[in-house]
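Sample pair:
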Amino acid sequence: MKPEDVLRVIAAARGSAICIPTMTAAPGWRDVAPDDLSVSCVGFMGGASTLGLGLALGCPDRRVIVLDGDGSLCMQLGSLPTIAGVAPRNLAHLLFKNNVYHTSGSQGTPGGEGVDYVMMARGAGYRDAFAVRTLAELERRLPAILTGEGPLFVELHTGLAEKTPMTDRGGLPFHQQVEKLGDFTRPGRLADLQLMRHLRACADAVSVGAQTLRDHPDFIGTHEDIGDGLGEALSRFRASQGRRRLPLQVVYSGSGRLDLDAPIFTTPDLAVIIVTTDPGARLLRARGSEERSVTVLVAGREKIGPAGLIRSHERLAAEFDVRYLDCEGGAMTLESLRAAGILDEIFVTVTDVHVEPSEHAAVKGIVSFGAEAGRLIAEGRTAADGGYLFRRWRVNER
């Protein structure tokens, strides 16, 4: 879900409730609900839940809704048993879970997607706690969230917000600085996009990690979404090679906490395989993976380790005829494949746009590209834009 869509749904139904947005939710909430019943908690990271507790106790006849973030709550987990112990009946605690500290630069939160805040809230003693992964589910459950006896805890699985407190002050968070690289008016960036679509067209399968899918909920790894006739040409190429129209989609998720209503799981003729763990498989089946014809491959009991990754890729080859898999990240997924010894080549685009790593903790160096990383087997530039250099590295000589 997009945070802005979630906020609009809440704003339309909240009535006279007091709302306490913090960090990522704060700018978007100001856009949809700029009123005196909104108390922003910015500059006090981790404090929204306890601020909400105080307001709930001070205004017992009015509903209080905390719009918290997982990074914020992680800094003050002691608020959960504190709230449960006082048990304010008028408090609803909504957590926006995107697994990153988005405001400060999209650094990963401790534990990432594997942290179950719903279980924490239940264990602390909240009257009810559950997760919501789709807007339709949120709209269905919202009346109970707004009127049910609290304290209630709702874990909202979302992507990244368009604005953060940093951008509202005129700054740019890390992920938007990186998006400056996506200036499609530059010939080099267009060539980079075309190269990516060529790689997808040549692949038997395109894979991504769960966090990449959360950050880009509309992601579908196909070659057909590019104009100028290239998409059609690549489709003809696939047909001439006897390949299926669209490559298989492979998603890695240890926990299985995926939004099965995302386009990648609902697009007709798109076959999807999820590589997960035993608990992840049980969760996915309970959420309807079989009804959606999503194939689940178990790669480990509690976590996906190198041996599990190797076994799952052997099954992809044996059962689904996957010989060439195009992995598009994220960083943890690529590093895991490399550690398992099954990452063969990396295509690297070098640009003249500089991001200073010391200023952004979210910059991740997967491989130091040089003689120790592998063998440079090809490189080239586009004549129209010398600021882009395209390199192909061989990192596994098996």
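The domain at 203-342 is CATH 3.40.430.10 (Dihydrofolate Reductase, subunit A).
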